[in-house]
TrEMBL record:
InterPro entries according to UniProt: CysW_permease, MetI-like, MetI-like_sf, Sulph_transpt2
NCBIfam families: 3a0106s02, permease_CysW
Originating species: Alcaligenes sp. IS-17
Subcellular location per the Swiss-Prot or TrEMBL entry: Cell membrane
Domain of life where this protein originates: Bacteria
Pfam entry (one): BPD_transp_1
ABC transmembrane type-1 domain mapped to chain residues: 57-264
The keyword Transcription regulation belongs to this UniProt entry's keyword annotation: no
Oligomer status and interactors: The complex is composed of two ATP-binding proteins (CysA), two transmembrane proteins (CysT and CysW) and a solute-binding protein (CysP).
SUPFAM superfamilies with a match to the protein in the record: MetI-like
Name of this chain's protein: Sulfate transport system permease protein-like protein
Transmembrane portions of the chain: 12-33, 53-80, 92-115, 135-153, 239-263
Protein keywords: Membrane, Sulfate transport, Transmembrane, Transmembrane helix, Transport
GO function term, MF aspect, one: ABC-type sulfate transporter activity
Amino acid sequence: MRKPPKSLADRLILAVGIGLVLGLLVVPLVLIFSKALGDGLPALWSNLQEDYMLHAIGLTLFVAVLTVPLNMVFGILLAWCLTHYQFRGRRLLSTLVDLPYAVSPVVAGLCYLVVYGVESSLGQWLSARDIQLMFAWPGILMVTIFVTTPYVARILIPVMQAQGSDAQAAALSLGANGWQIFWHVTLPDIKWALLYGVVLTNARAIGEFGAVSVVSGTIMNQTLTLSLLVDQLNNDNKAAAAFTAAALLAVFAIVSVMLKSLLEWRVAAGRRRNQAEAVQQ
């Protein structure tokens, strides 16, 4: 049960918490936007019109647009398998889903580079057929999919476990096929949790830096995403352009957080409704 701070210690803890939020989150965001707008809107617009900026924005959105639906489908299938079937290796599969959480993105990128780079046997085989994965957009897409793999599945698994399979079994007994069961029974129950996982996946895909930096080669106008562009422009002493790119990423992050909060509320409301219905039954 929540209660207002009464003692001096409670007020001190609250003040420290607010101070940390302001110092670590709010102040850096304000600084990013102030630096991006420091030379005025015309300079900001000019930076946004640079060819390297437009290419980085396009590549970032392109990777996110491909990553999100692929991981959405994979997450739904994986969550369905783990919650509806008992099979040998189920626990191992559930553990492997969390691997991207535990592995450093830089290490993940290096593993992809070792396996698919031109120095490996597979990389040489692909190169002989004019197929380039590393230091090109396919490599960026591959590592982005890897680091965002768990988000949808890990959101859906507890939701599906709480709902059980009685509704699906009832629909099956009434003659519904698999697609009808998913579309009319399963999807309405998981839609808010699914959207929540999609928002998290999209936010991570847009802001990923570590794994992408290893496999991209950081080639200007070819393999620089927005996050990589910020680092590249900063190293080139183009502070205004760097803060412009950082401001774009900050806008994406703020929108994602707002959507995340809204979807968290909807998911929590759905769980409370399901619990209330279960109690009534």
